Amino acid sequence: MWRLKIGEGGGDAWLRTKNAHVGPRVWEFDPDAGDLDTLAAVDAARREYTTAGRHRLKHSADILMRIQFANENPLKLNLPAIKLEENQDVTEEAVSTSLKRAISRFSTLQAHDGHWPGDYGGPMFLMPGLLITLYVTGALNTVLSSEHQKEIRRYLYNHQNEDGGWGLHIEGPSSMLGSALTYVSLRLLGEGPDSGDGSMKKGQNWILDHGGAIYIPSWGKFWLAVLGVFDWSGNNSMPPESWMLPYCLPIHPGRMWCHSRMPYLPMCYVYGKRFVGQITSLIMELRDELYKVPYSEIDWDNARSLCAKEDLFYPRPLIQDFLWATLRIFIEPVMMHWPGNKLREKALNHVMQHVHYEDENSQYICIGPVNKVLNMLACWIEDPNSEAFKLHIPRIYAYLWVAEDGMKMQCYGGSQLWDTAFTVQAIVATGFIDEFAPTLKLAHNYIKNSQVLEDCPGDLSYWYHHISKGGWSFSTADHGWPVSDCTAEGLKAALLLSKISPEIVGEPMEVNRLYDAVNCLMSWMNENGGFSTYELTRSYAWLELISPSETFSDTMIDYPYVELTSAAIQALTSFKKLYPRHRREDVDNCIKKAAKYIESSQRSDGSWLVFRFHVKERKYNMSITFCIVLYIFVCRLREIQHLCIEQQRF
Question: Is residue 37 annotated as a catalytic residue, yes or no?
Answer without folding.
Answer: no
